[in-house]
Write a structure and sequence with these properties.
Mean pLDDT: 80
Subcellular location: Cell membrane
Distance between the termini: 78 Å
GO molecular function: ATP binding; phosphorelay sensor kinase activity
Keywords: ATP-binding, Cell membrane, Kinase, Membrane, Nucleotide-binding, Phosphoprotein, Transferase, Transmembrane, Transmembrane helix, Two-component regulatory system
Helix content: 40-55%
Strand order of the largest sheet: 2-1-5-4-3
CATH architecture of the largest domain: 2-Layer Sandwich
Largest sheet: 5 strands, antiparallel
CATH class of the largest domain: Alpha Beta
Main location: membrane
Strand content: 15-25%
Number of domains: 2
CATH topology of the largest domain: Beta-Lactamase
Membrane topology: Multi-pass membrane protein
Length: about 600
């Protein structure tokens, strides 16, 4: 065991292939196990959520059926009372009853009320209210306030002016402030009512029969098994006001949480939202009354809590797998480290003895191949050293030609697409100009016999390039050339040094969407020779970015992959010496200026 630990300590100390393999294996397996655990927990939570959602649907569907049945039962006495001749007689505003007739009609209503009271437990009271001021209820007005303005209430006006749907008019929620204060169970308590208008022989409403429902019994239908999951089932109206709830204090409050608009926008459904700072599963279902919806809420913490047993078992399984992975990693590391150690020991002796100390028996085929290849490599080193001097002489000439021959295939592809667009749109003049500019660019860049050209030809190449590029951006780049002395255009310079700078200006200064873009190109004589200035009003560079770019330009051993400025600077210095090349100035959000210093040739 101590030998194994020594091997592990030696090969895991510092950065090594063995350590990388071991930790990579462990890391990948740990991540896979954690991912498996997270997915399992997520799926179990989602499954429980779906199960509780379906359970809520069933509860609310049963409650909806019970509510519909009880509303139909509650409608029957309303129909009987609304059509009873005694009710019409007592409410008739154009007919004056004598005392004897009034008493007889009251007795008739008392008989009907007795039947309702004995058979209808869903109804807490029935109000018989006439436009002429007639007031009565199931207990013969004993509990009612005589001076209460029933006919002025909004719910009464709705009862006499509404149109029955499914046999009744839903009045919604209102306070029972018309009872005497000594009747605590009813006074000023909220109630949910349905009504039927009472019409005279001309079918004109002369009053209404209103049934106040027992909210406790309605809420009892909703609860059923809801309390098993800390579930709350209640009913709201079209104004999102709670009209039935097991908590009496919640009745009459208005719901307001994210996503509540879906409850009335959709027939039924479920969603997860935040209610009073807790993530909650909300399920809703329609009722037979238009605008009334049943809503179920279950805290997500309850749902996730039911998955705790699964989490415990899963974490135990993950811990066991991690332990097994660690043991397997140690065994694999030891088996691989031994032949690697033999090979490294043999390589250490190369400087002291012959290269043939490397054998071809390292247990693994890959190590045997490495040993054999290393023998060949050492034997070729002397030959490569002899060839190094000649290769270095040819390097500068090859590098110069490579820098000159760089062509941007994306620019060519975009130009051909632009030309296709102009041809399809029928722009003959623009198409012709594009073809001429592109052919001039290609002819200029591919003519290998010319290394040096006049500055005027180089600037004309830039004009062709900018014309094509500006067409791509719908001429949103303002271009200006300032060359006061045309004689300097006759001096010769290296071909294709300005175009990469322009490409860099547009790409890094303006991006793919130039807005209010401006490019100024100028050329003047200076003490050292010729100064070509290219200035833009792009996003510029920070001091750190500018310092880094200047350092790259001054480093002859720097080899960036896609920096045209570096290529141009190296070509100028290889041709004319270190006194010439590029100078750059920039200010963030204001400008970038590239100055090309050339000799007069």
């Amino acid at each position: 065991m101590s030998r194994i630990m020594d091997v592990l300590r030696r090969y895991l100390k510092g950065k090594s292939i063995i350590r990388t393999m071991m930790f990579s294996f462990l890391t990948v397996n740990i991540l896979l196990l954690l991912l498996l655990g997270l997915l399992s927990i997520r799926d179990s939570t989602a499954s429980l959520t779906e199960e509780l959602t379906q359970s809520s649907y069933k509860i609310m569907e049963q409650a909806a059926r019970g509510l519909s049945f009880n509303l139909e039962e509650a409608t029957r006495p309303l129909v009987i009372l609304a059509g009873h001749y005694s009710v019409r007689a007592l409410m008739n505003p154009g007919r004056q009853l004598d005392v004897e007739g009034r008493i007889q009609h009251e007795r008739n209503l008392a008989d009907v009320a007795f039947g309702v009271t004995s058979l209808q437990s869903f109804i807490s009271d029935i109000l018989i209210l006439g436009e002429n001021g007639y007031v009565n209820n199931l207990d013969g007005r004993i509990t009612l306030r005589w001076n209460y303005p029933f006919t002025e209430q909004d719910w009464f006006r709705q009862a006499v002016s509404g149109i029955p749907n499914r046999g009744f008019i839903p009045l919604g929620l209102h306070k029972q402030d018309y009872y005497m204060e000594k009747y605590i169970s009813k006074y000023d308590q909220p109630t949910l009512s349905i009504a039927l208008p009472v019409n005279d022989h001309t079918r004109k409403p002369i009053g209404a029969v209103i049934a106040n429902l027992d909210l406790n019994k309605v809420s009892g239908m909703f609860e059923l098994t809801a309390n098993q999951n800390n579930q709350s089932v209640f009913m709201i109206d079209s104004r999102r006001t709670i009209i039935v709830h097991k908590d009496a204090e919640a009745i009459g409050t208005r719901l307001a949480f994210k996503g509540i608009e879906r409850i009335h926008a959709e027939e039924s459904g479920s969603f997860i939202t935040d209610i009073d700072g807790r993530e909650t599963l909300v399920t809703f279902h329609p009722t037979t009354v238009k605008g009334w919806k049943m809503v179920s809420t279950i805290p997500m913490s309850v749902i996730r809590g039911q998955a705790d047993s699964l989490k415990s078992n899963l974490f135990g399984f993950i811990y066991l797998c991690l332990l097994l992975n660690l043991l397997i990693s140690i065994v694999i590391t030891v088996r691989i480290s031994r032949p690697f150690g033999r090979l490294l020991s043999a390589l250490d002796k190369i400087g002291e003895e012959s290269v043939y100390v490397i054998s071809n028996h390292y247990k693994y085929r890959e190590l045997n191949v490495i040993g054999g290849k290393f023998k060949e490599l050492v034997l070729r080193i002397q030959t490569l050293v002899r060839q190094n001097y000649q290769s270095e002489l040819a390097r500068k000439d090859a590098e110069l030609k490579t820098l000159q021959s760089q062509i941007n295939p994306h620019f060519l592809f975009n130009t051909l697409q632009l030309l296709q667009t102009e041809i399809v749109c029928g722009s003959t003049e623009e198409s012709n100009h594009l073809v001429l500019s592109l052919s001039s660019l290609l002819r200029y860049s591919m003519k290998q016999s010319e290394e040096m050209v006049e500055l005027g030809r180089e600037i004309q190449n830039v004009k062709d390039y900018l014309y094509i590029l500006n067409k791509k951006y719908d001429n949103r780049i303002d271009i200006e050339y300032r060359i006061p002395d045309q004689e300097i255009l006759k001096h010769r310079t290296i071909k294709l040094i300005l175009q990469p700078i322009i490409e860099n200006v547009v790409l890094h200064g303006f991006g793919e969407n130039p807005v209010s873009a401006r490019v100024r190109i100028g050329a003047v004589s200076v003490k050292k020779g010729i100064l070509v200035a290219i200035r833009d009003n792009g996003k510029g560079m920070t001091r750190q970015q500018l310092r880094m770019l200047r350092a790259q330009l001054d480093d002859p051993d720097h080899r960036p992959e896609h920096i045209g400025l570096y290529n141009v600077n190296q070509r100028i210095r290889l041709k004319f010496g270190p006194d010439y090349g590029l100078r750059i100035r920039s200010k963030p959000g204001a400008f970038t200026a590239v100055y090309v210093v050339l000799p007069k040739v």
